[in-house]
Structure formats: structure tokens, C-alpha cells
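User: Here's a chain of 69 residues. Predict its fold as C-alpha cells.
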Amino acid sequence: MIVTEELDKWDGFVAAWLPGTEGAGVADVLFGDYNPTGKLSFSWPKNMNQFPINPEDDHLYKFGFGLSY
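Assistant: Prediction complete.
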């Protein structure tokens, strides 16, 4: 999923993929009932030219990037 151009238009971005039975946990984060923390387990590319992912590329978010609120 390439989101580089859209990010400046959004207040936040959550990639929940397929939460299944853990969807309630995603809802808790989105509604502010839980303070999320975490780190990316992969680098997030800026564009399709960065596939396959190469560690030397200038990614949108690098492996291990993370936030908490």
C-alpha cells in the first residue's frame, strides 16, 4: 500500500490489515481507550519503485519505526 501522497492530508494512519478476532483491540486504539505503542516489522516504501524492499532505499518509514501517544 503506497500512501505517500495522502499522508499530508490525514491526521492519522493505522494499518490494521485483517484484525479478525482482535478487531476490538484496534477499535480501542481508534476510540482512544488504549495508548498504542509498537514498532514496524518491515520498512514502508515511498513508491512502487522500491519493490522489492532494499534496506539502503530512502523509505517512508524504516524498519523499527514506531510511535506512542
